[in-house]
């Protein structure tokens, strides 16, 4: 009895809405159900994504706010800074060499090496000495030639002339050759990047004169850092800088590892410029790393104007963002953004906290939005929607160097929306599939992402993969019939940017989503708009699965050196297709295909303007009342600071 009572209330509410639409000239299919308790609800086809304007209600993508977009992939090729400008080669801080008590000539039956943690095999030392003592000096004229030869020891070992055991014949050496043997060990360290390490012949050892034979001991002093001194920082914590350099300063100090840490720090957006030098420390074998830092401006305010929202809520969007990339002096970032159209308002707050020097970060994001349908003739229905979303994400780079990065991220997100109809006080109403009787949709999901970035001198290649698993927690929508919060989906993105010539870029993009079942509209794949298939209305297609591909070339027209300005023309071609996980309800038309031309103007990092005109190569019914529906898109991004 109780179930029939609720069925009566629910259906009377829907009938009231149907009669209201009929009075306004709309039509809705009416399906009579003999037994609401036993009948499984049939998905409403009139609420699915359509490219034509529906006859009854606008599609859900025009009512609900857009979901959070995946992180943007890098688009501009950026090579790491030159190591020559970061760290000059120092002189090892070794003890002053005093002559051991050895005769002018001596007979050596063994070499002993002490203090090495890098080369465990003494054979490498003996081979280096043989190269320096017995090979043609014309092949070792400079540092580079010496390093080239020492790096070929495994492929081209020298002739064995030094004793390896007591059964080998001793070799006669002069004192000058003994010093050359010490230099060979120092050079071997230097050529392998250990610029503050070296070898000495310890004082106090005595070798018998000819004809007696004896052993020679060579001691290796492996260099380390005594301290890292930071000069020039203002708000950025010295510990923040020092901890990121410490990863490249383990003992023994290696130039390549230290340079990598310096280059990564130089790429940090909080650092404008830096230089470093190694000075002699207070103790033998130790050095001081002196780093001079020029901090970058960390506060930024941006204003963005574009027409990238759905015409249902007003395509012309005004937005502003304030960001502080060093809020507490520890490299933490806080950003606050506000976006507005004639029919919508959105607020977003994002805070990122660095947890480790390896750039492990914890990010919290909160967003809230309000929207009203203002597009005719649906504006008479007074349709409104409210949304709220939270996300907590932990990101950790597994591989990180100046050219490559592999990062993993785990995020827990929760999104909720509610739509309602103000006409005749109908109130909350399910506009999109999967919503409950109060028009509410809630999604809780665990997301696991992987991102790979490879930067070269002339190109950037980026891949991003994300697995999303819907969870039945935090009051998430759980219906008897899909769609609801129980889903599994994968999304993959790829981007390749190639510098063909000066100021000439080739940009290739791809995007793919696959899902195991019907999805709620917030999780579905979207096609159409400036960021997708240009030439079509924003979010023209909405489906469970989809693919998007784009090719664009940016050709320079004119440069303005006095203002760091660059004007480019950008011919492009876009293609996309989408399909659902239930038969007979794929969006139409499908696929979407367009080609077009754009203009881009950049003025340093202060101003970015873009104008695109996309020509649809697939016919589509549209009122074409806005620039966006005519294939024209614009965006203007102005950084105030």
Total of DSSP H or I helical runs spanning 4+ residues: 7
Judging by the overall fold, what is the CATH architecture of the largest domain?
A: Beta Barrel
Number of strands: 26
Indicate the CATH topology of the largest domain.
Porin
CATH superfamily of the largest domain: membrane protein fhac: a member of the omp85/tpsb transporter family
Distance between the termini: 66 Å
Shape annotation: elongated
Number of domains: 3
Mean pLDDT: 84
Describe the sheet with the most strands. Answer: 16 strands, antiparallel, barrel
List low-confidence stretches: 1-55
Report the top-level CATH class of the largest domain.
Mainly Beta
Our estimate of the beta-strand percent is 35-45%
Ordered list of secondary-structure elements with their pairings:
Blueprint: H1 2-24, H2 60-63, E1 105-114, H3 122-134, H4 143-150, E2 171-174, H5 175-191, E3 198-200, E4 213-221, E5 224-231, H6 238-246, H7 255-267, E6 271-280, E7 286-295, E8 299-306, E9 317-324, E10 333-341, E11 344-354, E12 361-372, E13 383-400, E14 404-421, E15 427-428, E16 440-455, E17 459-471, E18 488-501, E19 504-515, E20 525-527, E21 541-543, E22 545-560, E23 565-579, E24 592-603, E25 607-616, E26 632-639
Parallel strand pairs: 1-4, 5-7
Antiparallel strand pairs: 1-2, 3-4, 6-7, 8-9, 8-26, 9-10, 10-11, 11-12, 12-13, 13-14, 14-15, 14-16, 16-17, 17-18, 18-19, 19-22, 20-21, 22-23, 23-24, 24-25, 25-26
């Amino acid at each position: 009895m109780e179930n029939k009572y609720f069925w009566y209330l629910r259906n009377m509410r829907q009938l009231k809405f149907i009669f209201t639409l009929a009075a306004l000239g709309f039509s809705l299919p009416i399906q009579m159900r003999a037994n609401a308790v036993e009948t499984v609800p049939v998905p409403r086809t009139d609420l699915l994504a359509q490219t034509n304007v529906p006859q009854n209600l606008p599609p859900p993508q025009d009512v609900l706010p857009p979901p959070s977009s995946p992180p943007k992939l890098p688009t501009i090729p950026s090579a790491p800074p030159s190591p020559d400008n970061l760290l000059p080669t120092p002189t090892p801080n070794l003890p002053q060499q005093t002559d051991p008590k050895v005769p002018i000539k001596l007979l050596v039956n063994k070499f002993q090496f002490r203090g090495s943690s890098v080369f465990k095999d003494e054979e490498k030392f003996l081979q280096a000495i043989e190269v320096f003592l017995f090979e043609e000096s014309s092949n070792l004229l400079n540092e580079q030639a010496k390093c080239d030869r020492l790096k070929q020891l495994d492929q081209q070992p020298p002739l064995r002339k030094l004793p390896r055991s007591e059964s080998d014949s001793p070799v006669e050496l002069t004192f000058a050759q003994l010093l050359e043997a010490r230099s060979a060990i120092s050079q071997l360290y230097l050529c392998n990047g250990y610029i503050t390490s070296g070898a000495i012949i310890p004082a106090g050892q005595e070798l018998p004169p000819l004809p007696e034979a004896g052993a020679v001991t060579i001691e290796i002093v492996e260099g380390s850092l005594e301290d890292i001194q930071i000069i020039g920082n203002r708000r950025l914590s010295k510990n923040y800088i020092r901890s990121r350099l410490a990863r490249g300063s383990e003992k023994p100090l290696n130039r390549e590892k230290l340079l990598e840490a310096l280059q990564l720090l130089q790429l940090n957006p909080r650092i404008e410029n830096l230089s470093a030098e190694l000075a002699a420390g207070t103790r033998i074998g130790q050095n001081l790393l002196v780093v001079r830092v020029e901090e970058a401006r960390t506060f930024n305010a941006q204003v963005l104007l574009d027409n990238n929202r759905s015409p249902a809520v007003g395509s012309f969007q005004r937005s502003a963002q304030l960001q502080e990339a060093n809020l507490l002096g520890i490299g933490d970032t806080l950003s606050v953004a506000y976006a507005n159209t004639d029919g919508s308002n959105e607020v977003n707050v994002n805070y990122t906290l660095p947890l480790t020097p390896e750039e492990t970060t914890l990010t919290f994001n909160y967003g809230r939005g309000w929207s009203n349908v203002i597009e005719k003739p649906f504006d008479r229905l007074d349709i409104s929607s409210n949304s709220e979303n939270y996300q907590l994400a932990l990101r950790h780079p597994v591989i990180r160097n100046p050219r490559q990065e592999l990062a993993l991220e785990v995020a827990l997100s929760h999104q909720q929306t509610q739509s309602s109809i103000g006409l005749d006080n109908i109130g909350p109403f399910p506009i999109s599939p999967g919503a409950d009787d109060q028009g509410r949709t809630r999604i809780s999901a665990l997301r696991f992402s992987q991102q790979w970035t490879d930067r070269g001198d002339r190109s950037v290649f980026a891949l991003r993969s994300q697995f999303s698993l819907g969870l039945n927690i935090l009051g998430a929508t759980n219906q008897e019939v899909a769609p609801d919060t129980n889903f599994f989906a994968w999304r993959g993105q790829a981007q390749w940017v190639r510098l063909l010539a000066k100021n000439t870029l080739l940009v290739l993009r791809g995007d793919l989503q696959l899902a195991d079942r019907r999805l709620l509209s917030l999780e579905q794949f979207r096609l159409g708009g400036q960021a997708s298939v240009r030439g079509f209305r924003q979010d023209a297609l909405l489906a469970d699965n989809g693919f998007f591909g784009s090719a664009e070339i940016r050709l320079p027209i004119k440069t303005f050196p006095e203002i760091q300005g660059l004007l480019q023309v950008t011919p492009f071609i876009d293609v996309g297709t989408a399909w659902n996980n239930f038969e007979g309800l794929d969006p139409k038309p499908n696929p979407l295909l367009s080609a077009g031309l754009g203009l881009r103007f950049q003025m340093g990092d202060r101003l970015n303007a873009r104008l695109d005109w996309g020509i649809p190569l697939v016919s589509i019914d549209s009122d074409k009342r806005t620039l966006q529906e005519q294939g024209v898109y614009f965006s203007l991004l102005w950084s105030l600071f």
